[in-house]
């Protein structure tokens, strides 16, 4: 199949190569986002759009993707200043041994989390190097998601979980425990199968506010997710607060 550039006819495979190179060199995007972007442009190609329309669309998509990416990694609209109560942090500490890293944190929560190292939205823990035993109650909020197949809006949490799974698989981190909100969504059900421990907390957690005070209304059900080689320990420790699958 060919498409037309002014009077010139271009071979579709040459165009595909060029587009792919262009997308893959965009360093504001991760691999999944690049693949999704390439796929959407190729769809336009298959519809035999003319070259100028394709280039215009590609530039718009790249710009949108880059903006979304910036939002995902640090500029979130929703308030995620709700902190894990100390008793749950102590359960995580029992399993992890010690908390080497809390990549999504702040000064107030660190008074009781006491991670060896922590990052905040100011220095963007999503983009930092993660290692050791990691505790993570990631930011929430939604964003247009170019990485997730159907392009529906997917919570930022998804990207943090994905990063944890990838780093564990690459053995860059030893163990990780995530605490996740709103656990009924399809995106969550798809990603949760990658973990080797899951605890569905029986009671709703009363998170602490940004001053470090317990909240009165707990709104969502929560899961703790575990990756590491000590799933039995996770089960032993977390069965006191909910149903554990390990
Ligand atoms: C749900 S709270 C959890 C805090 C703490 N880790 C805990 O377990 O209680 C998420 C925290 O991540 C912070 N945050 C938001 N975006 C971030 C980013 N890009 N990098 C690091 N921290 C971020 C928020 O400011 C907030 O304090």
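Sequence proposed for the structure above (246 residues):
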């Amino acid at each position: 199949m060919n498409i037309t550039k002014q009077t010139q006819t271009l071979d579709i495979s040459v165009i595909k190569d060029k587009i792919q190179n262009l997308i893959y060199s965009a360093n504001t995007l991760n691999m999944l986002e690049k693949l999704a972007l390439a796929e959407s442009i190729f769809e336009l190609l298959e519809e035999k759009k003319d070259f100028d329309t394709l280039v215009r669309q590609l530039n718009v998509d790249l710009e949108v993707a880059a903006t979304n990416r910036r939002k995902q990694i640090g500029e979130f609209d929703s308030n995620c200043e709700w902190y894990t109560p100390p008793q749950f942090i102590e359960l995580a500490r029992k399993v992890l041994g010690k908390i080497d890293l809390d990549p999504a944190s702040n000064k107030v929560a660190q008074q009781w989390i006491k991670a060896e190292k922590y990052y905040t939205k100011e220095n963007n823990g999503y983009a930092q190097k993660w290692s050791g035993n990691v505790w993570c109650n990631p930011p929430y909020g939604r964003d247009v998601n170019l990485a997730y197949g159907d392009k529906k809006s997917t919570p930022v949490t998804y990207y943090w979980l994905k990063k944890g799974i990838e780093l564990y698989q690459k053995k860059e981190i030893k163990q990780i425990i995530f605490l996740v909100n709103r656990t009924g969504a399809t995106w969550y059900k798809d990603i949760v199968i990658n973990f080797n421990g899951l605890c569905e907390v029986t009671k709703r957690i009363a998170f602490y506010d940004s001053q470090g005070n317990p909240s009165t209304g707990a709104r969502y059900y929560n899961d703790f997710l575990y990756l590491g080689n000590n799933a039995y320990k996770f089960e032993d420790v977390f069965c006191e607060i909910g149903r554990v699958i390990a």
